[in-house]
Design a protein that fits this description.
This protein has three domains: 147 residues, no CATH class; 48 residues, no CATH class; 137 residues, no CATH class. The chain is built from eleven helices and 13 strands. The strands form two sheets. A seven-stranded mixed beta sheet has the order 7-8-11-10-9-12-13, sandwiched between helices. This is Protein FAR1-RELATED SEQUENCE.
């Protein structure tokens, strides 16, 4: 499976937009107060001219609820303020409004865009201390699907219960996949959740802080020096923030470096194995020798899992291995990894691990009528129990 092949459906789920569109941004709740409000009867209505709301938040909540029920994403456009800097009116529109734009520098592989000038929108204008719908267009020029609403970014959110569960399980050392699985079990299935594993992982990354105790960073450095005194070819790098906080660490011993010289064809990279007391994901590079055995080719500890962090780690590993990139690298379906691999290993073949693909099938396809047939076909094709 090619990692750079993105179907129209996947592009719709990711809802890719250009960052330089200053007047367009996704509608999200500001704080948890909106999450705890009960759904009012008005949420069952469709937008129509003259419909009144007590506040801007109520108007946004109403339109988002309507969009989720119908199966389309929401963006905010054309916000205007009066001379007193009070909000005069704003527009909420279908996220497929606007012309398609492509930012890829490679004309043969343009980034996908879901924009197709959809006309659906509602304009909310101030009426005293309230807001009302002054103009509305409900028709779309593309198919919409309520069953796929949960995949749209603007409809994904973590409620207070989910956040607390994630934090407690993370503090107990429970791995991310099992942590997310517990939420799936509590909700009664993937289709009952308004978020995915990626949102859970991102939330924990935001809440985690690498709080090294007094002398811990120095102790790590001293340990590396001791290893280097015993093994002259021992390689290590430490990424330190401007405030002196240790962010990321990479190391590889002489055996790993020598092994890579002979077995550099295919490398697997994963960050889902375990975390330590500092909540730093362990990130090993693993190869396969001529006996079919897994061999360690270096590893790191990361404080984050964004593109910049992976770029730092991949460059560190490449430097360690005499700037000899692998022919192929296998990872999970992580966009940040994909971006970093394209930057550091542009000539390497990037593939997705079948285990991770199979793990995502229930979450992504369970709502389809032929889900069991699709799952069975994958299992038989790849001989997965």
């Amino acid at each position: 499976m090619e990692s750079n092949l993105i179907s129209d459906e996947l592009a719709e789920q990711n809802m890719i937009f250009q960052e330089d569109d200053a007047d367009v941004f996704f509608v999200e709740e500001n704080g948890d107060h909106l999450e705890d409000q009960q759904v009012e009867p008005i949420m069952m209505l469709e937008p129509k001219k003259g419909l009144m709301f007590d506040s801007e938040d109520d108007a946004v909540k109403f339109y988002k609820g309507y969009a989720r029920k119908k199966g389309f994403g929401v963006v905010r456009r054309t916000t205007r303020y009066d001379e007193d800097n009070k909000l005069h009116y704003f527009t909420l529109a279908c996220s497929r409004q606007g012309k398609a734009q492509y930012s890829s520098k490679n004309s043969f592989k343009p980034n996908p865009s879901t924009r197709m000038q959809c006309p659906a929108k509602s304009i909310f204008s101030r009426r005293g201390d309230k807001f009302c719908i002054s103009s509305v267009t409900v028709g779309h020029n593309h198919p919409i699907s309520p069953s796929k609403s949960r995949f749209l970014r603007c409809h994904k959110k973590l409620d207070l219960h989910a956040k607390r569960t994630l934090e407690l399980n993370d503090q107990a050392g429970i791995r991310m996949n099992k942590n997310f699985g517990s939420l799936v079990m509590q909700a009664g299935g993937y289709d009952k959740l308004q978020f995915g594993e990626k949102e859970c992982r991102n939330y924990l990354q935001e809440t985690r802080r690498l709080q090294l105790g007094a002398g811990d960073a120095h102790a790590v450095y001293q340990y590396f020096l001791r290893m280097q005194s015993k093994d002259p070819d021992f390689f290590h790098l430490m990424d330190v923030a401007e405030d002196g906080r240790l962010r990321n660490v990479f190391w590889a011993d002489s055996r790993s470096r020598a092994t890579y010289e002979s077995f550099s064809d295919v490398v697997t990279f994963d960050t889902t194995y375990l975390t330590n007391k500092y909540s730093m994901p362990f990130a090993p590079f693993v190869g396969v020798n001529h006996h079919g055995e897994s061999v360690l080719l270096g590893c790191g500890l990361l404080s984050n899992e964004d593109t910049d962090t992976f770029v730092w780690l991949f460059k560190s590993w490449l430097c360690c291995m005499s700037n000899n990139p692998p022919n192929a690298i296998i990872t999970d379906q992580c966009k940040a990894m994909q971006n970093a691999i394209g930057e550091v290993f542009p000539m390497a073949r990037h593939r997705w691990c079948i285990w991770h693909i199979m793990k995502k099938i229930p979450e992504k396809l369970s709502g389809y009528e032929k889900y069991e047939n699709i799952k069975y076909t994958f299992q038989m094709r790849f001989m997965i129990p």
